[in-house]
Design brief:
Pfam families: DUF1254
Largest sheet: 5 strands, antiparallel
Order of helices and strands: HHEEEEEHEHEEHE
Protein name: Membrane protein
Keywords: Membrane, Transmembrane, Transmembrane helix
Strand order of the largest sheet: 1-2-8-4-5
Structural class: alpha+beta
Oligomer: single chain
Number of helices: 5
Helix content: 25-40%
Distance between the termini: 72 Å
């Protein structure tokens, strides 16, 4: 009996290692990941509304129909970006993801405490190149440091009632993701 325990344990440990490696590597090998699906409907550094989910499907799977969504595929190779999102009456959030879908920052209208969520998005080199300015505090300028040059900014706004859907969509179309000046 004891001669079967050691090989069984070794098999279980090996299986766990293979499973963990596959789970960790899969996002980097997937051809139709979120970035690729969104690249079919959006260009770099521009905010594009995502169509509501329908019977034919959705650009992103498991999309909540109670939200209006927009996306900006960013590319920081040319320089930092200024992300400006007007808030809505109910709830607005801005989430940042790497090219492979790993989240690294999120903020909502309650946290921002303003009628417009305004962020500077840059990579580590661009942030290090910023001049030190004692007069500009963290409350005046919210800087988000991206771990990669490419990624996704996902903007979502809650629509409490169907009658307000067009109004929220119009407000979301005012969002922009443009090079910082």
């Amino acid at each position: 009996m004891s001669r079967f325990i050691l090989p069984a344990l070794a098999g279980i440990v090996l299986g766990l290692i293979v499973h963990l490696a596959a789970v960790l590597v899969l996002p980097y090998l997937a051809e139709q990941d979120a970035y690729a699906r969104l690249a079919a409907v959006a260009g770099p550094n521009e905010v594009v509304p995502i169509d509501d989910p329908s019977d034919a499907g959705a650009v992103l799977p498991a999309t909540d129909p109670a939200f209006i969504s927009a996306v900006c595929l960013y590319d920081l190779a040319a320089g930092p970006l200024k992300v400006r999102v007007p808030t809505t009456e109910d709830y607005t959030s801005v989430s940042f993801y790497t090219r492979h879908g790993l989240p690294f920052y999120a903020i909502n209208d309650r946290s921002a405490g303003r009628s417009i969520i305004e962020l500077d998005l840059m990579n580590a080199k661009q942030r290090a190149a910023l001049p030190e300015d004692d007069e500009v505090t963290a409350a005046d300028r919210l800087i988000v440091e991206s771990p990669s040059d490419e990624g996704i900014v996902l903007i979502r706004a809650l629509v409490r009632e169907r009658s307000a859907r067009d109004e929220v969509r119009a407000r979301m179309q005012l969002a922009n993701c443009a090079p910082a000046t």
